[in-house]
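INFO worker-7 received task bundle
INFO bundle size: 2
INFO processing item 0
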Amino acid sequence: MVIVLILTLFTFGIVATAIVSGWYWVSAESPVAQRLKTLVPELGAQAKAKQKGQSLTERFLAVVGGYSFGGSRNSLAQRLSHAGIRGPRAVTIFLGVRTVASFGPALLVIVPKISSGKPLGNALLLAGAMWMWGHVMVNLWLRVRGSRRIRELTNALPDTLDLMVTCLEAGLGLNATIARIGDERAQLDDPLGREFAQVSFELRSGRTREDALRGLGDRNGVEDLKSLAGLIIQSDRLGASMAQTLRSHADLLRTKRRQRAEEAARKLPIKMLFPLAFFILPALFIVVGGPAMLRLKDLVNLVVNQ
């Protein structure tokens, strides 16, 4: 009896310590908020309220994601970067979201069934199915978002290069051209414009043009951006005309975009084959052959009665 009491108190102490530590970590102020509060008390209070209102959920998901598992974090960080989800805690927050989306429905299924005294095997099987469904759906959402963003960047690149050629021929330098394109297209909610704006910010921060352009291709996973970065770096080293180089590359990318559209159009009849066979043809057969089958049935009945 004494041993059970000691174990109960020990367990209660561990759980209480973990809860208090977690709450302190979630509600703690960042160093920036502390310095801001010291310098300007009013602004510090506003920043603290804003930070709590915006990042409380993110911190909770980061805590959950810190104890989850999900393969190589470097590969996951690259996939998140291709999808446009970046940040120092992007991987941890995504793992937290995936854990909540998978274990949450599973717990909602298994807890009522166990508490009501239903068989454990069926409850575990259904909970496992719900966990797998949540896990797969979150990964599928990330893959679809990454593919859609890569497609948008690829399709917008030829028109962006035409704007760059216009700016270069108007007398702007390459850095000023990148900054102008980033400012203009970022206002249109264009992902490629935001990427050029980030390249411009990196150039103003002191990063070399070669590193900034290579980073543009690496963090987005678009082969056309990687080839564009290599082309600009090579032209810059050789001293070739940047406007003529970009114009030729824009024509090449525009041809590739037209070829992708033609390829998708040629694949359309094959993709329509399965909906046609399973949904349209059966209804067509019923409409066309239904009256004939009913007439044939009447004739058979008439012959049998005679």
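INFO item 0 finished
INFO processing item 1
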Amino acid sequence: MRVFTASLATETNTFGPIPTGADAFRARGYFPAGKHPDALSFFAAPLWVARQVAASEGWTLIEGLVAGAQPGGTTTRAVYESLRDELLDDLRRALPVQVVLLGLHGAMVADGYDDCEGDLLRRVREIAGGDAVIGAELDPHNHLTDEMLRNADLLIAFKEYPHTDIVERARELVALSTAVARGKLRLARAVVDCEMIVTIHTTSEPGRSFVDRIRALEGRDGIISISISHGFPLGDVPDMGTKVLVYTDGDREKAEALARKLADELIGMREQLKVPFLDIDAALDRALAAPQKPVVLADRADNPGSGSPGDSTFILRRMIERGIQNAAIGPMWDPLAVRIAFEAGQGAKLPLRIGGKVGPASGDPLDLLCEVRALFPDMWMTGLSGARTPVGNAALVAACGIEIVLITLRNQAMGTDVFTQLGCDLASRDIIVVKSAQHFQASFASVAKSVLYVGAPGAATPHLETLPYRKIKRPKWPLDL
């Protein structure tokens, strides 16, 4: 069996201020055909798994382009078309193939392309032919479009949020796609649009139990795969929203009935799934009053994993104004401040202008007298499913009793080691502010006594009613009650 695998992925905040261009892909990971390293990278799990099983299965595995960018604003047209065409050229050189395995995101938007994944899958189908089996792994924060469904035989989204099951879902994708190619499965699918926007945190109820029930259904009574597309609310595209996707072994009616049942369950629990966002002062009040510390505050609106810059100063400014000390915050994206800290050297005390550099959604910069406590060139943190994640040169500076992690490659807080590698003792802090929406939970749960979600201002605001949507299908809960 000849199997082709490749990846092209990013998540697009169409309201975000930072265009996604070539440098964004080079920073997170750009590997031409056959050049992917011997290590897992976030969106190349299908390639990683296929590489592990190819020899024992006797496949001929052809590896194409792997390119992923940190979530950001709209991808430039030239960069999308260039990367897409590079991947397609890799596929042409691999022909004939029986299976195509792709690592995608599902919410990539480029200038002129509201549905990059649908565009890519259509072109892959045209090249690979109607008999080839095309499977793709997706992030659950995807826009599940008709074009994607028409041109892929199988789409499987991560079930966990934070996404700790990337490799597990890739194994399913590889096993099921090759089973279809061998004639052992005949897939039938159904999709139900829940006409809402909801996020399922699998670290709390009722999301945890709902996902556990879904997993228990798979592999029984002809039910092959179930994926919940949360949707990505910061993407203003027609297909944005929460959907349920079910595959069965040839029984379309069963797929349709189960998709409808699960969608109705999800709709019924949507109020319980809403994340309780606090304003900045309310969150700080609760953190200070908490009997056990540290308390982690998640700065959802400035989450680089949702396309924000990661340089907003709203929470840090308020902590300083209130005289709050014994706290840590990060990682803040500020290449200029990091460069100055490196020039000054560890132990130096100097004025630094921190954050607030990208635009109004980042707030105003803070002018602080800082001590440079640690410097770490070319630092990596532990990402989801153990994938190593670069953050570039990193500096730990202290001002007003608060330790601040500064980085040069924009990224969210995922591993606690983004702090601890710089010598920041998280367990001894009262308050830890993380630039992240939910992925921090996988690692920070080991240190946090409690977690609060903060609805501060920012480019990834959780207050969806404030966003100027133009393209999404309406009505859609909770925008239209």
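INFO item 1 finished
INFO post-check item 1: Residues 77-94 form the longest helix (18 residues).
INFO post-check item 1: The mean pLDDT is 97.
INFO worker-7 idle
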